[in-house]
Amino acid sequence: MRSKIVLASVFTGAFFAFGQNEVDVYRLSNTYVQGSARFDAMGGSFGALGAESGCIGINPAGFGRASVSSFSFGAAGTSVKTTSHFRGNGEAVSTGTSSMDAFKVRIPNLAGTVVSDVSSSNSGLIYTQISFGMNRVANFDNSFNYSGQQFESLLDVFASGASGIAPEDLYTYQPYTSSLAYQTYAIDPDANNNYYPRLNSADVIHNRTVLNRGGINEFYFGLSANYLDKIYFGASVSYNTLNFSESIIHKETLTDTTGTLGLMSYVYQYNYRSKGGGTNVKLGAIFLPADWFRVGVAIHTPTFYQITDEYSADMQALHADGMKYVDPSFLPVNKYKYRIWTPTKFVGSFGFVFGDNGCINVDLEYLNYAWGRLKTTTDEAYTPYNYAIENATIKSQMVDALNVRVGGEWAINNMFFIRGGYGYYPKGDTLARSYGKTFSQTVSGGFGFRFNRVYLDLSVRYLTTSSVYKAFFESRSDLDIVNTTFNIGMQYKFDYK
């Protein structure tokens, strides 16, 4: 059976989920393509320029600009710093600020392009290209901690969720929340099966740590062509691999345990992991109305994901007479398969080329997050589920967005290159916007060096965003996230021209 976990209300730039809902759809739809160091330095803005491996994430016709075969790879170190501001219920009972840092080295880009000269066919085609490789399109590493004092408790949520359910049925209906609290004597029922927390009517210190890991890698295969150096077109098929995990440790302690005969503190733990893969197709074209002006258009189909979620939970409670644990037979562990369709994307691009001196590109990327959908599993080993309610929430809560990327490059002596870029990404969630968390942005820059057939590139890219995390309705933290990526890449061209 599919376990639907209703525990937290969360709306952040990356979203963190407890079940299959709008959170999952937004997480997989809100991506930032990471490619070569040159691509990153120019803010990922390459839709009308092309001849760059990262362009697969924007417009596959960009490969049509390649006139020689090449191979490129890179290494990137990413630092993520998340600062949390605990506000409790907004009444400033007690607030706290804390920061968590993480650093990881990955391969963000690996690509090869094989170019064939077909100009002798007299068909108008000059070059055709076969391209293949990998780009990272999402990074979910984002961990944070908050601590503060407030009156409301997570046990209030557990008690409310158990209302009307007989104690012997709690594991069936609330295995990840109320059942654990009941097993550890943190909540108690009355004769009418109304439940009450065992914490005394007093303020408690909240301390929650959230550890998020994972990302999405895109593996692609593309075909493209050059028609008379005026029209370039391309198509690609990609397979995205998804890996996301979230671990939550939530602790509450009474501010004053003097004379306490019952519950003094407890720790609740929740672990969630999501793995899967999905396929999409991209089609694109680039036109050259003039040598100095280029126009690109592209469409990305939805990515059709098949996903498996695994989740487990545990709880311990410290009473005056000792620690209480959950009976191992009541520790919930479950797995469920389902599908997600991300929104279609439309991309329009404009490029301006200043001879051999440099270039500027502008990408306008439109998508409507409300087009995302949850679909039931096709695996007969799992019970089908009707996502009508969840999809209605997606349709009403999510909105459209126009992402804007601008990047430029300037050449010095045709051997040394200076680059910069900027990206603006509006939030596609009305709840995030209602809290004033309206957009994310990237600022980037870097350098490039050319030595005959070898190109060496360096870049740094800052992604900044803000969000709201709500452990439950009366507990709010504001998050400020800075994602810094240092990228070094090398490209080798097999036939220098």
Structure description:
By secondary structure, the chain is mostly beta strands. It has one domain (9-153, 199-493): Outer membrane protein transport protein (OMPP1/FadL/TodX) (Porin, Beta Barrel), CATH 2.40.160.60. It contains 7 helices and 23 strands. Strands 2-4-5-9-10-11-12-16-17-19-20-21-22-23 form a 14-stranded antiparallel barrel. The chain has a two-stranded antiparallel ribbon with strand order 7-8. A hairpin with a 7-residue loop joins strand 2 (70-88) and strand 3 (96-106). The protein is elongated and about 90 Å long.
Helical amount? under 10%
Mean pLDDT reading: 90
Strand content: over 45%
Distance linking N and C termini? 61 Å
Mass-distribution shape: elongated
Write the CATH fold name. Answer: Porin
Number of separate strands = 23
- The run of helices and strands is EHHEEEEEHHHEEEEEEEEEEEEHEEHEEE
CATH class: Mainly Beta
Strand order in the sheet with the most strands: 2-4-5-9-10-11-12-16-17-19-20-21-22-23
CATH superfamily caption: Outer membrane protein transport protein (OMPP1/FadL/TodX)
Structural class by SSE content:
mainly beta
Give the low-confidence spans.
1-18, 90-94
* Helical stretch tally: 7
The major pleated sheet works out as:
14 strands, antiparallel, barrel
The second-level CATH architecture is: Beta Barrel
